[in-house]
């Protein structure tokens, strides 16, 4: 029961942080005015996708912090969260797609490093990060296209 409670708290904390970032740095008129590539998804898609991803990310993080002693893996998880939460302020608040692109590239590298390091330590945590890696790879292409178009 203790593990379930800590998992629940981990998920709530990550979701709350993600929702707070989204609330504090929403897309604005500047974003609406940008030229976007043909593959830009509709705005309504981002909230449900990120909500699902944050549950997966939180579950992976909970597993790492609960069941592994690998400090490097814990640092990778925390680092990717910090980078994740830096992207929106860089892009939407600072209106700086170039800085956001640098952040998301480093974020993608951190996610892939987490997946590789977790593979032999907690395969479930590693697998939970695969959809996240796919989405961030797509978001990186989207960010790059916005930089190129604007």
UniProtKB/TrEMBL annotation:
Subcellular location: Membrane
InterPro entries: TspO/MBR-related_sf, TspO_MBR
Keywords carried by this UniProt record: Membrane, Transmembrane, Transmembrane helix
Bilayer topology annotation: Multi-pass membrane protein
Transmembrane segment boundaries: 7-25, 45-65, 72-92, 98-116, 128-149
Superkingdom to which the source organism belongs: Bacteria
Pfam families, per the entry: TspO_MBR
CDD domains: TSPO_MBR (cd15904)
Family from the record: Belongs to the TspO/BZRP family.
Protein name listed in UniProt: TspO/MBR family protein
């Amino acid at each position: 029961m203790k593990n379930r409670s800590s998992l629940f708290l981990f998920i709530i904390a990550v979701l709350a942080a993600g929702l707070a970032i989204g609330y504090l740095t929403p897309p604005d008129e500047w974003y609406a005015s940008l030229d976007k590539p043909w593959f830009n998804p509709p705005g309504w898609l981002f909230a449900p996708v990120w909500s699902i991803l944050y549950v997966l990310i939180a579950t992976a993080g909970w597993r790492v912090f609960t069941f592994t002693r690998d400090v490097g893996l814990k640092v990778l998880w925390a680092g990717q969260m910090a980078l994740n939460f830096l992207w929106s302020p860089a892009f939407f608040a600072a209106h700086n797609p170039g800085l956001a692109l640098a952040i998301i590239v480093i974020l993608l590298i951190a996610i892939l490093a987490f997946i590789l390091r977790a593979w032999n330590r907690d395969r479930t945590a590693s697998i939970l990060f695969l959809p996240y890696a796919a989405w961030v790879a797509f978001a990186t292409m989207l960010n790059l296209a916005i930089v190129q178009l604007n």
